[in-house]
Amino acid sequence: MHTEVKVPRSVLLSVESPGRYVGGEKNQIIKEDVVRELAERGECSAVRTAFCFPDVYEIGMSNLALQILYKLLNSEDYTSCERVFSPWFDMDRKMREHDIPLYSLETKSPLYEFDVVAFTLGYEMAFANVLQMLDLGKVPLRAAERGADDPVVVCGGPVAYNIEPMSDYFDAVFMGEGEEVDLEFTKVIKKYKDSGKKDRKAMLREVAAIDGMYVPSLYEPEYSSDGKFVALHPIDDTVPAKITKRIIKDLDNVIYPTAPVVPNNNIVHDRAYLEIFRGCIRGCRFCQAGYITRPVREKSAEVLLKQGVEIEHNTGYDELGMLSLSTSDYTQLKELTDGLLCAFDGRHTSLSLPSLRIDNFALDLMEKASQTRKTGLTFAPEAGTQRLRDVINKGINEENILGALRLAFMGGWSTVKLYFMLGLPTETMDDVKGIADLAKKIEDLYYDVGREMGVKLRRPEITVSTSMFIPKPFTAFQWEKQNTMEEFLEKQKYLKDLLKKVRSVRYIWHGVETSIWEGVLARGDRRLNDVIYEGYRTGSLFDAWDDNFDYDKWMKILADHGLSWETYARNYEIGDSLPWDHISVGVDRSFFLKERERAYNEEVTPNCREKCSACGAACFKTGVCYETR
Amino acid sequence: MRQDDRAAEMTRQQHLTQYVCRTRFARRGALSFIGHLDLMKVFERAIRRAELPILYTQGYNPRPMLVFALPLGVGIDTTGDWLDAAMSVPISAEEFVAKVSPQLPDDLEILECIAIDEPERSLMSVVTYAEYTIDAPGISAPAMKLFARETVEIEKKNKKGKIVTSDIRSQMVKPFEDSTEDKIHIMVCAGSTGNLRPDVFLNALCRYEGYPEDKAADAVITRTALYGGEYPDIEGIEGLF
């Protein structure tokens, strides 16, 4: 039925972590027999999906979307789903040397034999790896080059909302949450297979007619003579002019992987996950994740408790992570954590509770949740001054932070990590200085608490971490100019010098170069397709790993294509067309514009539970928009 | 935690009554490509899924109390390795096998289990010899020649990173008579007093007998048994506690 790719032992034993390339984990699903029987009985065609994650196994296996959709696409009689990850440089080289095609972990089938090759895209820097996987899997890179028997190549995930820089490579793109739409799509593929794969174009038209699906080849871009993006035109009237994302209305009754695949080798986030809600009530103006996942929809504590116990039992993991954009905003957090802690009593299982807003309840919870000692506390003030925090609508002030830390220091915590962004709209050097001032205040507070309590405390560990602001589509700051390399470096150096004077602070920063390039990709248009191909052809891979990223090369390729950093990082006029204007995440453009004005006026917008600001997400008729306030 | 630390931990915790399930297991296929610590974790999780009353180590980072007889290198199959799982109440061998077996990934299998109350010696300290089979085309003839040598000197890095030569001949105990042209069956020294890794044996085979390196690289290596005692007076691990 399918080709089984054989990898010699000598190849596996010559690469780093060969466990990445062999599968065989607990809870993996092999539907080979079911699918074969179905086909032999001639009842209907089976649709085989290769679920691809464009990074190494250890990162991909930490991704919840993969586990959810893996279960979903293995749930129907006629569907099967297998996993494929990006081979690291050493394995990439060996596979080319020995002419070994990229294969799935479950049945070791080559990528080109699948009906569907589906990517989940979480970060732009993985683009080159998409090309690597298709290339190694012997799938024609561009949608236009694929014939009747080639796989249908699709993608989804947060980055899919502006897929224009990669539009040539995908036959179709999923906008939003996949739990429903994925099966609507596989039905079309099944029909296509049943018909003997006669008319690929007609099949793609049918896919384009599914709500939330975008078929890039049915649109044509237009650019102005001075190099600006003008519009993306549907090729005829039957093609939807606007594609609105899909969401799941009721998370309690949607499929959830309570028996996820448990890796045999150590992965990045080696724990089980419980997704407690989707969306975010906060409305931070830079945050794409917050806007694209609106509206907030919670799962009930009752369902979560049941699923949490099942997951722990089915995986044997000793840690269960709560997953959401802001743990503390879950309205039934106490019921849920009490229930789980009670269920896990004596079982040496701990809870991990990221992004908790620190108060007495949280500190108490953290102490109870962890089986080990006190871990560090994390804060994300994002900006150093209240003025700038108001600009970005980060709903916390200095008193909140210092008040929380006072409690924590009194409770014996001494490790604090603070996240900030440099280059936010309207930022001045005073705002940058504010970061150092805040760090100093925290250090002082720590010793004050020690004195008040009459104990001599050891030196605290305060980590200040800065990343670079990247304007993203579907945010209030989608029109903003990004800081230049020089501006970023100047701010970074200024802050570094100031922080040298605060003894207990360690300063770490994210690479400026990768942030600049990510900025280009995030707001890119179709002209970047060739740029990314050229980068891949000349050896770029795993750009999300700073060591591998070659800034000068990418910039040169960009220039060779008559484009520049300014083409994408400039300040966009309100009247400018944006490459993602044909996509809707439910939040209106007019709301983003209003938020942008409020940002310039340093006005805070209340969160979704305080007051509805009519962003547009109520169009989905569910979630926080329909809660009684 | 390192194996030695675990052993020490187990000794320290002797005030806790331990009921040990001494288990022989096999691994092959996908499971052979993971490292020793990963394999340990795979067993830990399987036993947790099986909901058996395993004891945990004390201290900063409690782990289920599992001790392996001898670490297994990446790429090596086994049909003869042993581990001890310490329980807080007596668990029969039958129960252990019945509950843990279904929880293991496909390429891992429990072959037998013996329940032991409070063993006196740690499993790791008893291992002195190991048996391997090595499947590779035409391997027997050169291997026999290697066994016929008086000395087999190899170079290796010592703890300071300096290259030193050492003679492994004394660690090559014997070839077995059931060896065939393409499959050699050998006994070598193993454990903390002197351990000959099969890949080191293969390297020596390439170096001294001109066995092709590409064939050596694709050899299927299987550990088939572990022993304690002093050769020829040796004994299976199952009886040493």
Walk me through the structure:
The complex is a heterodimer of chains A (629) and B (241). Chain A is 35% helix and 14% strand. In chain A, helix 6 (127-136) packs across helix 18 (528-537) and helix 15 (429-453) packs parallel to helix 16 (485-499). The longest helix of chain A is centred in the last third of the chain and has 25 residues, at 429-453. Chain A has helices at 9-12, 32-40, 57-60, 64-72, 89-97, 127-136, 178-194, 200-208, 288-292, 301-315, 333-343, 360-369, 386-391, 398-410, 429-453, 485-499, 512-522, 528-537, 551-560, 565-569, 589-600, and strands spanning 47-53, 79-85, 116-120, 152-156, 172-174, 213-214, 219-223, 229-234, 243-244, 272-275, 277-278, 297-298, 319-323, 350-352, 377-382, 415-422, 461-468, 505-509, 583-584. The model of chain A has no long low-confidence stretch (mean pLDDT 94). Among the domains of chain A are: 9-244, Cobalamin-binding domain (Rossmann fold, 3-Layer(aba) Sandwich), CATH 3.40.50; 271-374 and 589-629, Transcription Regulator spoIIAA, CATH 3.30.750. Chain A is an alpha/beta fold and 629 residues long. In chain A, the strands form 6 sheets. A 6-stranded mixed β-sheet of chain A has the order 2-1-3-4-5-6. Chain B has 241 residues and is α+β, with helices and mostly antiparallel strands. Chain B has 2 domains: 3-125, Pseudouridine synthase I, catalytic domain, N-terminal subdomain (Alpha-Beta Plaits), CATH 3.30.70.580; 129-231. Chain B contains 7 helices and 11 strands. In chain B, the strands form 2 sheets. In chain B, strands 1, 2, 3, 4, 5, 8, 9, 10 and 11 form a 9-stranded mixed β-sheet that branches. A two-stranded antiparallel sheet of chain B has the order 6-7. In chain B, helix 5 crosses helix 6. The two termini of chain B are 23 Å apart. At the A-B interface, helix 1 and helix 10 of A face helix 2 of B.
